[in-house]
Specification:
The complex is a heterodimer of chains A (about 160) and B (about 70). With about 160 residues, chain A is mainly alpha-helical. Chain A has helices at about 10-20, 55-80, 80-90, 90-120, 125-145, 150, and strands spanning about 30, 40, 45-50. A two-stranded antiparallel sheet of chain A has the order 2-3. Chain B is flat, with a radius of gyration of 18 Å. Chain B has two helices and one strand; from the N terminus they run αβα. Classes of the chains: A mainly alpha (about 160), B mainly alpha (about 70). Chains A and B meet through helix 1, strand 1, helix 2, helix 3 and helix 4 of A and helix 1, strand 1 and helix 2 of B.
Amino acid sequence: MRTIRLRSYLPLLLLTLSLAVLPACKSPNLAAGGGYAPVTTNSVGEVVPASAPDKALYLADASYKLAYDTMAGAFKFERDNREEILKISPEVKKALDNLRPNVVEVERRWALARKAYRQNPTPAGLSTIQSILAEIQRFVPVVQSQLAPVYAGLTKPQ
Amino acid sequence: MDPATILAFIALAIKAAPAVKQVYDDGKALVQSMFQEGEITKEQQDALISWADAHQEAVLAGEVPPEFTVED
């Protein structure tokens, strides 16, 4: 039976997260007509931008999704395997339970900030989203580290 | 570490592998899209903004996934 080396995924996962934290080193162009670069048809039938492409929101949303999915994956992993993890490392649930309500609170503030920005895009509103993004990104290594003792029990491929 | 604990780790790691790999693969694709040459396609944009809008509204509606709740 092939044993999967999970340990090899973790540094790569952390690397992708660190890339997401960095300011966009290569600011991508947004194809016209996408959700972040909407278009409309003007009076003479030309397709024109409905508003300026919002690269910053794209990057903020992408970074947020990355952080959220990673934490949700860790929380779900602990919940789905709770009985076994409690036998291996009883402190894991307690540590994650300390983090869970904090993450939920940051989520609430992110949603409020993003809704406000979507309704009225302003530099200040974007800055608020980015500040909250930084908060939730700081949770990611903390959540991951709580499961490190569990991940540390991996074996080498046979 | 005793053999029983080692075996418990192994079983847990095998169970966790698909879920962790999925998170990694999704994350890798997302980050690649942030740094790729050329344009972020309409499809990539629509997929992300759909997720973000839906997640935003779910959070504002008070929806909390079970994995984010504290249980006894």
